[in-house]
């Protein structure tokens, strides 16, 4: 494992961006992108692997917050779901994603907590159903105390600060990976915009043609952000 002492943010970002450009320089394919995303997450995790956290499957409290992802992250989750789920389960999930988009897309975190608008990708046991391909933003957040999480995400209106002790170094590392990935996408002429997680995944599920559109360097319709 790399250590905090060996962390140099600009060097890290530059390595990630170069890796993405090298991987996609010969042409962007869904599988190459999925590997490039896994490499980004792996590079970040190499600095964080043995750092403590209290998060575990079945503790889904923070999965109510807005999650911003880059388009290839949403695409990779959608393609993974299409491969793993039966037609019936996929249709059910699309309905949940569509309902979530209608209700939650303009809500801020506070409203989401109050209305308990949890991520539609949570499974019935409070685990992440896309854990293997979960976005960088989800990997960035870890709590150091599960009881604080439970208290912080209780849906009540309060003026009190509800603080959760978190691993800020992990957040810095994953945020840097996110920025460097976006930079790599930009350099190879791919759309580097971010989008709300559920909206992005649903877009690629409802419109399979968006995969080719994205990979060819076209921009997805602006309506997705409106
Ligand atoms: S993708 Fe997974 S980890 Fe991220 S918010 Fe949804 S359920 Fe939670």
UniProtKB/TrEMBL annotation:
It comes from the Bacteria. InterPro entries: Puta_zinc/iron-chelating_dom. It holds the Pfam family CxxCxxCC. This is YkgJ family cysteine cluster protein. It comes from Geomonas oryzisoli.
């Amino acid at each position: 494992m790399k250590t905090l002492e060996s962390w140099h943010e600009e060097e890290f970002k530059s390595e990630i961006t170069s890796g993405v450009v090298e991987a996609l320089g010969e042409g962007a394919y869904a599988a190459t992108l999925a590997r490039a995303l896994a490499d980004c997450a792996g590079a970040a995790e190499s600095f964080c692997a043995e750092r403590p956290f209290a998060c575990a499957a079945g503790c889904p409290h923070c999965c109510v917050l807005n999650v911003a992802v880059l388009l290839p992250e949403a695409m990779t989750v959608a393609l993974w779901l299409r491969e793993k789920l039966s037609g019936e389960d996929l249709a059910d999930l699309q309905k949940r994603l569509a309902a979530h988009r209608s209700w939650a897309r303009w809500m801020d975190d506070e409203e989401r907590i109050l209305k308990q608008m949890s991520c539609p990708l949570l499974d019935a046991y409070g685990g992440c159903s896309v854990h293997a391909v979960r976005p960088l933003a989800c990997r960035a957040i870890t709590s150091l105390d599960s009881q604080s999480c439970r208290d912080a995400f209780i849906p009540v209106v309060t003026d009190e600060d509800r603080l959760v002790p978190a691993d800020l170094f992990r957040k810095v590392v994953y945020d840097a990976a996110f920025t460097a990935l976006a930079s790599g996408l930009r350099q190879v002429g791919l759309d580097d915009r971010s989008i709300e997680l559920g909206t992005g995944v649903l877009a690629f599920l409802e419109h399979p043609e968006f995969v080719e559109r994205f990979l060819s360097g076209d921009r997805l319709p602006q309506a997705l952000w409106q």
